[in-house]
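User: Here's a structure from my thesis project, written as structure tokens. My advisor, Dr. K., wants to see whether a designed sequence matches the one we expressed. Can you design one independently, without my sequence as a hint?
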């Protein structure tokens, strides 16, 4: 389909460490269409950041390496793309914002300098015009005193302000894809909502596709059209945000949703999934979630579940959705409830 912006196809990114090979991204397939906001969720250590770094070809090598699969960006496989071409793609066709914008802003240059450069790559205008445009951009993203901030250095701004600058940069580049890795995690709730609004505007006005990575389902609910749930390097569930929040299918997604704070409930004690995300290991057999899953049965420890299709284009990597396990599924559905 021509409106496909990004397609990860069985992506495998491994780390070769002293203690062995770590399949951090273990066969991930994800599609992002034009104008779509896709969320990747999962607890810390699930492989979300390594997935996004793989797209940008920014996985630290060594120890990391893309060992298989494809990353098709508008039909071009980025896995085989030269560093020279990637430099053109990064920050132009694909923009990325991180949890800590200091890693992507250059501490040695003023905000204006960096923003002007970004603008001038895309528009043939002189320095003065670019400066005035940069000030406009800073105003659009809600930076007060924009005409003073433009001459300041990144370290002089708060985290929220730096994140706004990153979004202003992304907007002036007019990328086809914005990858945001935990962009609001370090920010307080009010600023978080404002940053999400800015991303939503970018998506609405320019039809920019967004791949939003977060451990926070609240953020997903705010902005994403579709959600991909990752666990231990694999996609375990996929569906529309609405369906996944209302009716999660995979036991891991159910656990994530159960641990969301509920505004209307007085009870303050939050549920959390027992145990932790296991470090990915080579040659592991069985469902990665089995040691933590309350529905696990023998087969879960003996075979790897595939991503089973369920109704409405939904996918769930769980034997409970294998037709062969039909009876068990019905029982589980009845037991799991919500
Ligand atoms: N530089 C690295 N060297 C070795 N292992 C790494 C490195 N970076 C990430 N990993 C491993 O990859 C897995 C996924 O990490 P990451 O993508 O950062 O998780 P998330 O973003 O979902 O919290 C983890 O198990 C982590 O140990
Ligand atoms: S395959 Fe088994 S262990 Fe894995 S999520 Fe489903 S029921 Fe739980
Ligand atoms: Mg991460």
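Assistant: Designed independently from the structure alone:
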């Amino acid at each position: 389909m021509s409106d496909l912006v990004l397609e990860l196809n069985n992506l495998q990114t491994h780390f070769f460490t002293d203690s062995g090979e770590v399949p951090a991204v273990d066969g991930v397939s994800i599609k992002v269409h034009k104008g779509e906001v896709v969320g990747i969720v999962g607890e810390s250590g699930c492989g979300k950041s390594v997935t996004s770094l793989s797209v940008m070809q920014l996985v630290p090598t060594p120890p990391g390496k893309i060992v298989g699969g494809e990353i098709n960006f508008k039909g071009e496989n980025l896995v085989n793309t030269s560093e020279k071409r990637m430099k053109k793609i990064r920050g132009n066709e694909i923009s990325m914002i991180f949890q800590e914008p200091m890693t992507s802003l250059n501490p040695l240059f003023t905000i204006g300098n960096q923003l002007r450069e970004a603008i001038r790559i895309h528009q043939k205008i002189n320095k003065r015009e670019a400066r005035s445009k940069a000030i406009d951009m800073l105003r659009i993203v809600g930076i007060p005193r924009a005409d003073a901030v433009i001459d300041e250095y990144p370290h002089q701004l708060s985290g929220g302000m730096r994140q706004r600058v990153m979004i202003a940069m992304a907007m002036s580049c007019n990328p086809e894809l914005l990858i945001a890795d935990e962009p609001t995690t370090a920010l307080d709730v009010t600023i978080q909502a404002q940053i999400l609004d800015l991303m939503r505007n970018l998506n609405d006005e320019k039809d920019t596709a967004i791949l939003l990575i977060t451990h926070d389902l609240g953020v997903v609910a705010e902005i994403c059209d579709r959600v991909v749930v990752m666990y231990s390097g694999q996609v375990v569930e996929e569906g529309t945000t609405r369906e996944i929040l209302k009716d999660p299918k995979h036991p891991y997604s159910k656990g994530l949703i159960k641990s969301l704070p509920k505004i209307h409930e007085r009870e303050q004690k939050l549920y959390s999934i027992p145990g932790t995300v296991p470090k990915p290991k080579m040659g592991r057999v069985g469902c990665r979630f089995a040691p933590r899953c309350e529905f696990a049965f023998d087969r879960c420890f003996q075979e790897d579940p595939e991503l089973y299709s369920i109704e409405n284009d939904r996918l769930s990597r769980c034997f409970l959705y294998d037709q062969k396990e039909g009876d068990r599924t019905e029982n589980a559905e009845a037991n799991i409830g919500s």
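When you compare it with your expressed construct, this may help: Residues 113 and 302 are 57 Å apart (CA to CA).
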